[in-house]
Design brief:
The chain has 361 residues and is an alpha/beta fold. The chain is built from 13 helices and 8 strands. It has 2 domains: 148 residues, Rossmann fold, CATH 3.40.50.1970; 199 residues, Up-down Bundle (Dehydroquinate synthase-like, alpha domain).
Length: 361
């Protein structure tokens, strides 16, 4: 298996970065469709209009329905064709980003991502999660390339509710440990290639940045202020985690998230919260040193990530069996672990993680 490294062609981050949206996208085309979440439309539209002011460029804004569904992607594709759009842009969170990525892919156009929260590493990755129109899971799309540009306006991220930044830290927390597990078993990355030293360096830097700046960043965003620590965590959540996961691979942490989506009581639990709890379970499966497990649990508690089943919404531990079974289905990334993992082993690890979390609390 050949080693492989992929990333967005351009990554831009900083205060009021959207005021320079035109400068960072002008070489891609002369007509733009901005696929927006409702909140993203309100927050970002004035800055983008200012950036494109007095330019010989056509811009259109379209608010999508909130789900990256097959029907919504088709609607965006019709808008692209009817208006001869040359560049598709995303403004918002993961669903808006996935809708724009898929639209651009099917129309063979460049895509630009402008996230308004740092809750997941979706902006930089080369994949999307697509749903049916009724909200049920449809498929993953793995793209031949990553976005042409990712533009992160830190002032917008810092003004968003802190729960999004915290969830992003949970998603990013799994990056290093999952990549480390894939490296041990020579498992392919999400890009279906071997893991490079560059990828592992990014994954490790992601982990180190979380521990150095996570708590400070949380305190700052609770006050709606932008500090160097917040900038560092935005980069960790968005770029280091996104490019790291893409090129490093997944293991237990993300399979735990997929498993817990089978439980109704976890429907409102954020992606990153479940990934963080899954990371603790992975360390237990690996029988990692207690010092490392303690470090991870203490970090989670410091920033407000869950360390018990109750904190992710599960009151009846017997129902964890359902999540464990789903997390271990064929094709799940949990099978990248050394020696593989059975549903029973995962169930035991999740209960052990819950017990450990309670002792630390």
């Amino acid at each position: 298996m050949l080693k492989l490294m992929r990333a967005p062609a351009k990554y831009v981050q900083g205060k009021d970065a959207l005021f320079e949206a035109y400068e960072n996208t002008k070489d891609l085309g002369s007509s733009f469709l901005f696929v927006c979440s409702r909140s993203g439309y309100k927050i970002a539209k004035p800055k983008i209009e200012k950036s494109f002011e007095n330019k010989t460029v056509k811009i259109m804004f379209e608010v999508f329905n909130g789900i990256s569904s097959t029907g919504e992607i088709e609607r965006m594709r019709r808008i692209v064709k009817e208006n001869k759009i040359q560049v598709v842009c995303a403004i918002g969170g993961g669903s808006a980003i996935d809708t724009a990525k898929a639209t651009a892919y099917y129309e063979n156009l460049p895509v630009v991502v402008m996230p308004t929260v740092a809750a997941t590493d979706a902006p930089c990755t080369g994949l999307s999660v697509i749903y049916n129109d009724d909200g049920s899971f449809c498929k993953y799309i793995f793209y031949p390339k990553n976005p042409e540009a990712v533009i992160v306006d830190s002032s917008i991220i810092a003004a968003a509710p802190v729960k999004f930044l915290v969830a992003g830290m949970g998603d990013a927390l799994g990056t290093y440990f999952e990549a480390r597990a894939c490296l041990k078993t020579n498992s392919p990355s999400l890009e279906n290639g071997g893991i490079t030293k560059s990828a592992m360096a990014l994954c490790k830097l992601c982990y180190e940045t979380l521990f150095a700046d996570g708590y400070k960043a949380k305190l700052a965003v609770e006050q709606g202020i932008l500090t160097p620590a917040v900038e560092n965590i935005i980069e960790a959540n968005t770029y280091l985690s996104g490019v790291g996961a893409d090129n490093g691979g997944l293991a237990v942490s993300h399979s735990v998230y997929n498993g817990f989506t089978a439980l109704e009581e976890c429907e409102s639990t954020m992606h990153g919260d479940l990934v963080a709890f899954g990371t603790i379970a992975q360390l237990i499966i690996e029988n990692a040193p207690m010092e490392e497990i303690a470090e991870v649990i203490e970090f989670c508690i410091s920033v407000g990530l869950p360390v018990t089943l109750a904190q992710v919404g599960v009151k009846d531990v017997k129902r964890v069996h359902i999540a464990a079974e789903k997390a271990c289905m064929p094709g799940e990334s949990i099978h990248n672990m050394l020696g593989d993992v059975t549903p029973e082993e995962l169930y035991n690890a999740l209960l052990a993680a819950d017990t450990l979390g309670k002792t630390f609390l």
